[in-house]
Amino acid sequence: MSYPTLSGRTAVVTGAASGMGAATARLLAANGARVALLARRTDRLEDLAAKITADGGQALAVTVDVTDQASVDSAAARVREAYGLVDLVVNNAGVMLPNPVDDGRIDEWSRMIDTNLTGALRVIRAFTADLTASAADGRTADLVNISSIGAHLVFPTFAVYSATKAAITQLSAALRSELGPRDVRVTNVEPGLTDTELGSHIDNPLLTEQINGMFAAIPALTAEDIADLIGYTVSRRRDVNLRQLIALPTRQA
Ligand code: NDP
Fold first, then answer.
1. How many separate domains does the chain show?
2. pLDDT higher than 90, residue 1
3. Which domain holds residue 66?
4. Has residue 253 been placed in a domain?
5. What is the pLDDT of the chain when averaged over all its residues?
6. Residue 161 annotated to the active site
7. What does pTM read for this prediction?
8. At 31, which CATH number?
9. Which of these, 122, 143, 148, 214, has the minimum number of CB atoms within 10 Å of its CB?
């Protein structure tokens, strides 16, 4: 899709190594934004940056682990050194590790909380000053947080994942009250079933089978569908904040 007002924007997309993050980075770059690609897998980021550049766009691969404060600090410094102030942040990195709560998988709970919630907060901390300064300069400034329909719907074994996403949804709403008055838009996106790598880290074969069954039963959204929604949202005029987007596959109840 074409969103000409994105030309000249400076974006950071976390979780840009795959799925929605990679698709969003491609879309923003194709519409003229400079895009910093953040995730852990450097090879994926460099491949994507090379593709974007070959297509005439601007992209910078920045390796980061959002669970590590020093890593986020140095990534933010690298982005600022290359591109200056950031005016668009897509806070998208996440992991989904379902298991029955009585399995007591503290390792998975910590990883989800550290990535999906504290990681998102680290990224917000790193770039809020950029967003408010950009807005004060009269530019459009956006913080887009990727939550999930899991913030509202309950699924057995997804309790902790859903809790992290409910926290993101509430965080987005709360941040509007702090950032909105300073002309920074905050958008919370809650996708339903989307075909990405997210389910590939599940270590419980029964749950993998269940997820595969859902993908067989429901034509899922694509990462590009979500990227397009984000592109539409952040290309509105600066006084319009689409604050909450829920996008479900038509057949997902
Ligand atoms: P993917 O697994 O394809 O993407 C997740 C991205 O997050 C990867 O690029 C991964 O890259 C990155 N990531 C994971 N951990 C870290 C970390 N510690 N530091 C930095 N980056 C990290 O899945 P999706 O595209 O589906 O996921 C994107 C977001 O969408 C997630 O927040 C997810 O919860 C949410 N979501 C997904 C839905 C779906 O059905 N797919 C539905 C609702 C919400 P790397 O491994 O290289 O670090």
1. 1
2. no
3. 4-247
4. no
5. 97
6. yes
7. 0.98
8. 3.40.50.720
9. 214
